[in-house]
Specification:
299 residues, alpha/beta, Rossmann fold, Glutamyl-tRNA Synthetase, domain 3, 2 domains, three-stranded parallel sheet, three-stranded antiparallel sheet
C-alpha cells in the first residue's frame, strides 16, 4: 500500500505565478504537518510548454520545497487511464456522447440544473442511433451517473454538496479528462489529502463520487483561497511581475517572495523574513485566512 501523501499538481503550460506558489506552499505545509509524504505530479495531458516543467520545479526548490520521488507525469500513465475506462465500459457505467459544446449549451436542461450541465442527450441512444452518430463525429465517453449530488468534507469549508452530472471521462480526441485522471492518479499514488485553490471546490463532489464508484476512499480536501489581481480577477501572468523570474527583475528574490506569501497567510509580521521551516512551526489550518489575497506586483 502506498504511503499516505499530499500533492501539488501543476500543468506545465508556463511559469508558476505567486498564486500557484502560495498553493504549493500550503499543500506542502498541510502534508508535512500531518506526517504525510508530498508528491509532485505534472498534469501534462495537454497545454504543455517545453521547459516549463523544469522551471516550475526550480521555482519550487527556490522556495525550499522538497518532495518525494518519483515525479509523476500524467503523460506516462495513459495505459492506466485506458484500463480503468475499459473496466467501466464493461460494467455499463459509461456511455458514448457525440454532442458538441454548443449543442449542450443550447439543449434544454433539467429544472434547477446548473448552467452547462449535461442534459442527457446521448445517454439512452439506441445502437442504431449510436452507429449513425459515429459516422458523423468521434464520441467522447461520459460517466453514467446514478446520483445528482454528492457531499464531501473540506477542512476549510466543512460539508460541501455539489452537483454530479454525466461528466466526461475521455474526450472525443481520446485524451483522458481531468476529472478521470486526477482520481485515478490520486488513488494509485496513495494521495489522501488534496490541497488546491477554492476555484476547484465545485469539482470535488464529482471526483469524490467517481473515486467511490471505483472503490477508493475520497481524499481529505482543503480548498484554499485564491490570489487575485488588483482588479479583483483571478491572478494571471498578464498582471505584471507575478512569477519568481519577473519578481527577481524587480529586486524581489525567492526568500522575499516566500516571506510575502507567509504574511498573506498570517504567518509573518510585516517586513519579517521567514523560512519554510518557520512557517511549518507556525502552521495552523484553523488560523488560515478565508478571504482571497490581493497581490500587488512591484512596479
Amino acid at each position: 500500500m502506498s504511503t499516505p501523501a499530499g500533492r501539488f499538481a501543476p500543468s506545465p503550460s508556463g511559469d508558476l505565478h505567486i498564486g500557484n506558489l502560495r498553493t504549493a506552499v500550503l499543500a506542502w505545509l498541510f502534508a508535512r504537518a500531518t506526517d504525510r509524504g508530498f508528491l509532485i505530479r505534472m498534469e501534462d495531458l495537454d497545454r504543455v510548454r517545453p521547459g516549463a516543467d523544469v522551471r516550475q520545479l526550480d521555482d519550487l526548490k527556490a522556495l525550499g520545497l522538497d518532495w518525494d520521488e518519483p515525479l509523476i507525469r500524467q503523460s506516462d500513465r495513459l495505459d492506466a487511464y485506458r484500463a480503468v475506462v475499459a473496466e467501466m465500459v464493461d460494467a455499463g457505467t459509461t456511455f458514448e456522447c457525440f454532442c458538441t459544446r454548443r449543442e449542450i449549451l443550447d439543449a434544454p436542461s433539467a429544472p434547477h440544473a446548473p448552467q452547462g450541465a449535461y442534459p442527457g442527450t446521448c445517454r439512452d441512444l439506441t445502437e442504431a442511433e449510436r452507429n449513425r452518430r459515429r459516422a458523423e463525429r468521434p464520441a467522447a465517453i461520459r460517466l453514467r451517473a446514478d446520483i445528482a449530488s454528492f457531499t464531501v468534507h473540506d477542512v476549510l469549508h466543512g460539508e460541501f454538496t455539489g452537483d454530479v452530472d454525466d461528466f466526461v471521462l475521455v474526450r472525443n480526441d481520446g485524451t483522458p479528462a481531468y476529472n478521470l485522471a486526477v482520481v485515478v492518479d490520486d488513488a494509485a499514488s496513495g494521495i489522501d489529502q488534496v490541497v488546491r485553490g477554492d476555484d476547484l471546490l465545485s469539482s470535488a463532489p464529482r471526483q469524490a463520487y467517481l473515486a467511490t464508484l471505483l472503490g477508493h476512499r475520497p481524499p481529505e480536501y482543503a480548498h484554499v483561497p485564491m490570489v487575485l489581481s488588483e482588479r479583483g480577477t483571478r491572478l494571471a501572468k498578464r498582471d505584471g511581475a507575478v512569477t519568481l523570474t519577473d519578481l527577481a527583475a524587480h529586486g524581489v528574490d525567492a526568500a522575499a517572495a516566500l516571506s510575502s506569501i507567509a504574511r498573506s497567510l498570517g504567518m509573518a509580521a510585516p517586513s519579517e523574513p521567514v523560512t519554510l521551516e518557520t512557517m511549518a512551526r507556525r502552521f495552523d489550518p484553523a488560523a488560515l485566512p478565508r478571504e482571497p489575497w490581493v497581490f500587488v506586483p512591484p512596479e
